[in-house]
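Changelog-adjacent note: as of this version, every example in the card shows the full chain rather than a window. The one below runs 247 residues end to end.
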Amino acid sequence: MPQKMTVSPSQTTITQIDFMVDGFRLMGTLYRPSLRTNRTVIGCHGLLSDRTSPKQIDLARRCTATGIAYLAFDHRGCGQSDGDFEMVTTLAARSRDLLAAAEFIRTTTDLGPRLGLFGSSMGGTVCLAMAKQIKPWAIVTVAAPIKSASIIPTEKNAKDTGNFPPSFYRQKLQFDITDTVSDVDNLLLFHGDADETVPVSHGHEIHSLASQPKKIIIQKSGDHRMSNPVHQREFIRETVDWYHARM
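Full-length structure tokens:
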């Protein structure tokens, strides 16, 4: 089991990077600890988010403070990456983005070969869908949907889904990754039992289908955005420990 390293957050090196996939230039931020490491976590943001989400930035800094590098990147059509969101957003496209990010780490840097994955909401779906190909040492997801039906907008959650019409979701975001989850192991997943966007039943189903070792943390009264600071602290602590124990 890798030993934890104590590295001051002030010694983190932050570099802006880019890589190509399907003709799109994707932008990323690479966080590196001062000490050399062969362990890197790649983060996938949620459907309407980007690499600057506070959750990812906090996780990246905590990972590097303990000796693990972290790559956060903008999927095509998001943040500073190329592409029109409504035209290019599909699960298959985002899966290719993640695969390209993994290849970037493995072939362009000296940070491999031990890769971990992190995904929030749809980013978690992407990580689970690509686990068989990437073969990560550890995966952590937050509020990941296993089926697309949960993210079709309703009056209750339309604000959280960007107010895109239901036709966008039916045409671009139809998916069901049930058959791929059995290939996933070393999985830690978080889900709030009051999630208003992706019902907690998705977390339970993913956990029941995944292979050992696995762990589920259900956060009491937790919402989709993990807005409770207590839940956020638990997430960071448990996630960093999970990566260290398996990478």
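Structural remarks: The first strand starts at residue 13 and ends at 21.
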